[in-house]
Amino acid sequence: MELIDSHCHMDFPILRAQAPQLLDAAQAVGVGLVVVPGVLQDDWLALQRFCRADKRLVPAFGLHPCFMAQHGDFTQALLQLDALLAQPDTVAVGEIGLDFFMADVDRGAQMTLFQAQLRLAQQHQLPVLLHVRKAHDQVLALLRRLKLPSGGIVHAFSGSAQQAQQYIELGFVLGFGGTVTYARASKVRQLASTLPLAAMVLETDGPDMPLAQYRDQPNCPQRVREVAQVIAQLRGISLEEVAAVTTATARQLLLQRVV
Ligand SMILES: [Zn+2]
Q: What is the CATH number of the domain that holds 32?
């Protein structure tokens, strides 16, 4: 059985410090590949080196919408991003998107940065890893206008069933992680049990979003197996089926250039 963690910040210091052990533990339960999204320009080159040092890691590069102040005037960053996306081992543009959760964010600046990164994804024919909070309708409108033939993943999806359907129609799939392990997360659990399995991929978002039974520890890739197990239970199917279908989807979406 093979599982893929489609979104884990293994390069964040708390995970990076024990990366070999964490990746061995993940591999021991079937999680053989981890997608590591970029967040800040300053970290991109270290992220690239880090992933190149271990076959189990593949990088994506992008500027995260929650760190607008650190991105400053991002003209220079976009030029570097363009160059990084041309590297054959880059699997996606991410983590990019819109986060309108806080009331005082500069929505216009987020939109400008997001659109510029979507255009780069289009030019490089790469999928995107999307971070979307309180902005699904805005993101859907942009994706309808820009059209991304390589699609992408809406990471940690928590929108409505209708929004999920609209992403799927645009060629996107939805990422599910530790949230499904919380009994009170009824909306996400409902989605995880009813969406077409072929439109779902698995993730941890480590070190964030810990599973219910590991609330006091940083989240890490081996937990993808437990996410898969919960989804299998919710759907009344086998763990093997969840693994086979979600892994095939993640591979097809992210690894066409690499593997
Ligand atoms: Zn993330």
A: 3.20.20.140
